[in-house]
Amino acid sequence: MPSAETVKTTPAKAAAPRKNARDDARKGATEPQAAWSFRLPRRVKVASGPDTLGRSAKKTMIAIGAAVMAWCFGYTLAYFVDQQEIAKARAMVTSVVERIVQVESGGDPNAKNPRSTATGAAQFIDATWLELIRKHRADLAARPEPELLELRRDPKLAREVTTYLIERNAKVLKRSGQPITAGTLYLSHFAGGAGAVAILSAKEHEDAATTLALADSTGKMSRDKLVKANPFLDGVTAGGLKRWADRKMTGETRKVKKQGTRTAQATRSL
């Protein structure tokens, strides 16, 4: 039989494992299991000192800020320059329009060329006016043709359409690599965009009327028709016509100017 001492100590020893089990259970509720436990990585030491990363970040931010400011300044400057160029171009167009009106009709809104259909302050021929008014003023396009043609006598509308034509011709000149000046814009008004490009691209001694006739995309224009509508073209070279257009815009008087005509877009006349 076991001794009394053995009997006394056995229950205490037997209870110890149960107590430990309860303690383990409580710890398990607050501590992660071994399978989910992790260790934080050791702190990486920077050899050059703890503030190196901060200084580098500051330098980077300063560089980025400087780049952004430089871009903004450059964009603002470019925008300002563009606006100046646009303002200059608009002023030039306005000046050319007024000069064309004076050259073509002396400012008379009822002017009529007896040799062609050119009418109004800017001396638009029928075909050119109908094309432009229908494209530029869609709100008027539905009106009867006679009524549309009569609108050439409206000085305000005539200037508006002339401005539209000049801007369109300027694009043609630019695409063709030709200079955009008051003279070349007037040449475009007189001979059409294609006609002006043909004259500007031709050799100085080439016949102007023949060059214009060949530039007519419709094939309906001949040298004889051009000379009939514009007698001064007979014998004029491409170089002479360019100088004539320049003089028209500067106000110089020459013999060829006195023999001039009022037939805007001559290559499409008749």
Question: In words, what does this structure look like?
Answer:
The relative contact order is 0.09. Residues 1-9, 11-15, 32-36 and 255-270 have low confidence and may be disordered. The chain contains 10 helices and no strands. With 270 residues, it is mostly helical. The chain is elongated, with a radius of gyration of 44 Å. It has a single domain, classed as Lysozyme (Orthogonal Bundle). The chain has helices spanning 4-30, 52-105, 126-136, 145-150, 155-175, 182-201, 208-215, 223-229, 238-250, 255-258.
Multimeric state of these chains? Answer: single chain
Mean pLDDT, all residues: 78
Under CATH, the topology is which? Lysozyme
First-residue to last-residue Cα separation: 145 Å
Tell me the domain tally: 1
| Overall helicity | 55-70%
Organism: Variibacter gotjawalensis
Protein name: Transglycosylase SLT domain-containing protein
Family: Belongs to the virb1 family.
Keywords: Membrane, Transmembrane, Transmembrane helix
Question: How are the elements arranged and paired?
Answer:
Elements: H1 4-30, H2 52-105, H3 126-136, H4 145-150, H5 155-175, H6 182-201, H7 208-215, H8 223-229, H9 238-250, H10 255-258
What would a concise description of this structure say?
By secondary structure, this protein is mainly α.
